[in-house]
Amino acid sequence: MKAFIDAGNVHQCTLQVSQVYQPHGNIPTTAILKEMTHETSSSHTPSSGGTGNADGDTETAHAAEPFLTRTVSFVRRGNRLQGRRQQAWNDYAEKYVIDVPRDKTDTSVHPDFVLDAHAAFDREAPLVVEIGSGLGEAVCHAAEQDPARNFLALEVYKPGLAQTLLRVGQKGLRNVRVVQANAPEVLATMLPAGSVSELWVFFPDPWHKTRHHKRRLVQESFAGLAARVLEPGGLWRLATDWSSYAIQMRDVADASEDFDNVHAGERSGADSPLTKVWESGVEKVVGGAPVREGKLPVSTGNASEGEGMDDIGGWAPRFEGRALTSFEQKAHEAGREIFDLAYRRKQR
Ligand SMILES: C[S@@+](CC[C@H](N)C(=O)[O-])C[C@H]1O[C@@H](n2cnc3c(N)ncnc32)[C@H](O)[C@@H]1O
């Protein structure tokens, strides 16, 4: 707790933090903890459109998930860096890492911290946010291809961020910043409402076992957070190589009143990657656990056990702005289907 109670210490963290952090002033610790355990509101729609501000975000922060008690979508892994990654961190962290004030853990974000993207990137430009950026392959490639936009990579795994720093640092990219943080917290409070033009969730951890599905990142509450940060007309792009998670993503986003499926009804029937998974039975070979889930009927077109026809569709063509990561490459090599989805944030 000391990090955010003692505002003097927080101000010493980094330049970026001192520019944007709003210290608590005289609010006692107990009051801060109470704020952080408010129940989720059914709507995350911000009170005003366009650019967000600290006041608007404080309202939303009060309606956010109780992150101290919530199940997270990741397994805590070591923060230790070695060799080239440690060197990359030494060389580039100051330039690219936004060091945020923490809450309880080293991947949390204090709910009073609101990012000033202009200060962090040293310019005004549309913001693309990638959640779970892994080794940084996609974000680095996209930032290089699209220098007119700013890219923010969110990742909990420090060695992955170090690898990302190595990539962006060697290329000397100026339009990338990274944050080591639990993404839902970043969406709930750190990013101003309506401040993001695209939100990317590519190959999030699939959490195969049914009892682990609650750990999946993309679920109803997450759709509310995505809607909160996206500007009207902004895009939420998703991809996965697991059919059961693909169905969950489509169900969650279709059910949200905040989004329209850009490719509604497309790639259905025999063209659907879901139908192809059922036909090929590929997940039986590769995954083990997802086999039965992959064969669950999602439509009345399901003929019999193990035979499915996806008559809903809604799958996007492969997003050509997404670099082929080593992760996706492995899925291709295993013969798995890739499911892309693209949803547009409705006008408020
Ligand atoms: C399966 S990997 C995919 C990485 C990358 N998107 C790719 O396609 O190569 C999922 C990544 O999401 C990260 N992750 C999981 N939950 C997260 C969360 N709540 N916030 C930020 N990153 C998260 C994991 O650490 C992991 O690096």
TrEMBL record:
Catalytic activity: guanosine(46) in tRNA + S-adenosyl-L-methionine = N(7)-methylguanosine(46) in tRNA + S-adenosyl-L-homocysteine
Biochemical pathway: tRNA modification; N(7)-methylguanine-tRNA biosynthesis
PROSITE patterns: SAM_MT_TRMB
Coiled-coil region list: none
E.C. numbers: 2.1.1.33
The UniProt record lists the keyword ATP-binding: no
Pfam families registered for this protein in UniProt: Methyltransf_4 (PF02390)
One term under GO cellular component: tRNA methyltransferase complex
Keywords: Methyltransferase, S-adenosyl-L-methionine, Transferase, tRNA processing
Keyword Phosphoprotein (UniProt): no
Domain of life from the UniProt record: Bacteria
Stretch list, region Disordered: 36-59, 292-312
Binding sites annotated in the UniProt record for S-adenosyl-L-methionine: 130, 155, 182, 205
GO MF annotations in UniProt: tRNA (guanine(46)-N7)-methyltransferase activity
Function noted in UniProt: Catalyzes the formation of N(7)-methylguanine at position 46 (m7G46) in tRNA.
HAMAP family in the cross-refs: tRNA_methyltr_TrmB
NCBIfam families hit by this protein: tRNA (guanosine(46)-N7)-methyltransferase TrmB
Name of the molecule in the record: tRNA (guanine-N(7)-)-methyltransferase
Organism: Crystallibacter crystallopoietes
